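User: I'm new to structure prediction. If I give you an amino acid sequence, what do you actually give back? Let's try with this one:
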Amino acid sequence: MLGPEDCRIAVERTHGGRATFRETVRVVDTFRGQTAWEGDVHVFDLAGNPRATEAYAWPEGKRIIAVLKTSPVDGPLAAVRGYVVAEAKRREIEKFGR
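Assistant: Good question. You get back a string of structure tokens that encode the predicted 3D arrangement of the chain. For your 98 residues, that looks like this:
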């Protein structure tokens, strides 16, 4: 099972800088009254990255999603929502083409 340490490493490898674990936040994202995503998001302070001082990461299957706190991503829920929307668009493109 992938945990906070795995996520810390993924943040550093993906975005550079030095990530320090701060906390784990339970996120439940709903859409039209249905749960679209539910899970734990690990929050990291990030030093040495020119774009952000905070990052969010969580396991998704066998991989880890790592997102910087940059506008419009202002917290764990926004990071998850951005990921969910991007994945839905990616699947739509794969299915129907551009």
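You can read the tokens as a compact description of the fold. Here is one thing that stands out. Residues 4-96 form one domain.
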